[in-house]
# Entry
Amino acid sequence: MVKKLIILISLLVLIISSCVPVNRHEIRLNGEIRDRYYINCYFDEVEKVLKGYQQITYYNKEEEILENIYFHLYPNAFQEKNTAPFLPDELTQAYPLGFDPGFIEVHNVDVDGRVYSWGYQDAAKNVLKISLDKPLQPGQALTIDMNYTLKFPLCHGRFGYGENTLRAANWYPVAAVFDDKGWNLDPYYPIGDPFYSDISDYHVRITLPDEYTVASTGQVRRAGKIGKGYREWMAEGKGVRDFAWIASKSYKVKKKKVKGTEIKSYFFDETGGEKALETAARAVEIFSELFGDYPYRTYSVAASDFFIGGMEYPNLVFIDKELYNKGGLFSLEYVVAHETAHQWWYGVVGNNEIAEAWLDEGLTEYSTVLYYYERYGPETGERILNSVIEKPYYSFRDSRQNNDTVILEDLKEYGSWQEYSSLVYAGGALIIDWLRKQLGDELFFRGLRKYYDTYKFQNATTGDFIEIMQDVAEKPIENEVMQRLKGDR
# Structure
């Protein structure tokens, strides 16, 4: 029975793949060329297996000739218990019924319709390497086709399934970033958000049992039925950094229109679902006024089997369903506001979250404080700054030998979530607060808006951020900021 089903799925994927159009036209956003992903996938609920076909129009956006192209295969971090992207004391929460493996297996890779030499960069199969027989020149493009099988683990992390939801995050082969340091091939670290990607366009078709409701990056709609008991969902995300989706048979949905954007709340608990919608809508209004307009037509907040609290993806965030009960509504509001701020700092303005995690998390955490300032007044904002940012940071700093508090650090250097949270989130937010006090509100917010406008749909660096704020301030601040980032202040 299972074998027959797998054969039928394979045939369906083959049929779907033959119908995908190839568009070699250069797509530009703010003058930047974007890669384009077409993905078609079919989910077998019994085996918790997804069969996928993917076509990528990949552009060499650099000034260097590329002889190889690399793709991250993040699901393979879930193959073994000792490689799963969780700390040892998190395994029970991540795997409530015991460890369950997940993986992605790539079956074939074609480039411009021809079979190419490809393989894995390491034994764990975390990175796929395509060796080009003809180097890709700057400005040139090629088309890459892949077929793969994805196994979802019973896991309450970003990728997996639980009692209520199926979560597809960091799930498909995604092109690694090539920048001035070369290819970025970092593994799936257990602390932080170990992801770094370029803006692309996505056209995705997902076939699931008919009972499921899907929330996703981009604009998603329920399409026609495919066979008995199955339905296709179609999603299009233009100019987004990643593509994620989540599905449930039990979702209730509420919607609200804000500044031309449809805000959706996917939930199980009515009280929490309304609170999540209200918070997301208000946060989009506040951040649009403070930083610049939200450039997408949809934004969804989805309750999830997710022990980590909250996680951001373009146009979509996962929120721990346990936060939706009446006793946790303050936490729900804080987490939803924080993840909504990530739609600006990560979603639109990206950065290397492995090497410079503070740049999005520090800005996002301080933006969450600004949400409380704007919504509830300065007194509430100051109280949040003191209790959620200052106290945890200084308490952690005082507990460190020699007050070692390096904020600008690579993810692999952090030994615990407490260290990461205290330094990157709280410490980073305090640097932003210091900048605000140095510049005054008029120049500070002018700088944030200029940073957002200059680097939207791109990847920025710490140097880029400091340069913008220094230009606005019209005085040298770089040395002071760098000293604080290196823990010298």
Summary: Confidence is low (pLDDT under 50) at residues 1-29. The chain has three domains: 2-243, 252-342, 358-485. DSSP finds nine helices and 26 strands in the chain.
